[in-house]
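Usage

Read records sequentially. Each one opens with the input sequence:
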Amino acid sequence: MKTLLTTLLAAFALHTASAAGDGWTTDLPKALEQAKKENKLVLIDFTGSDWCPPCIELKKNVFDSAEFKKFAQDNLVLVDVDFPKRKKQDPKLTAANEALSEKYKVESFPTILVVDATGKQIFRDEGYGGEPAADYVGKLKKLRK
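and closes with the structure output:
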């Protein structure tokens, strides 16, 4: 199992395409490297971008907001781990996303994790209740202290 996970994460590392634009990546290993170099945290968004209503609302209300983008630019490396139903996805990326979901025990969408540069989880938020960007960013700001 460990060999499979290592293989999938290696394949994931080879996939360097940006997933959602605006600074988001699908490459967790590179994101961790960047976080270490830049002294940032990594926010991982486990999402069903084309079918999950709370995921779509979180993106629209928080991640697309100017306030979140400014905070993220200065403090976060952003990783999109998507499980679409209608969009095509590279099979290697799908396998890598499933391995990450297993590793971090993700059972619902959206699940937002913030990890340090070693991949250690320091924050977990499951679901989205409609809070405004300012409130969401406020939670994230507390992690930087």
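Summary fields computed downstream for this record:
- Confidence is low (pLDDT under 50) at residues 3-20.
- The CA atoms of residues 1 and 12 lie 16 Å apart.
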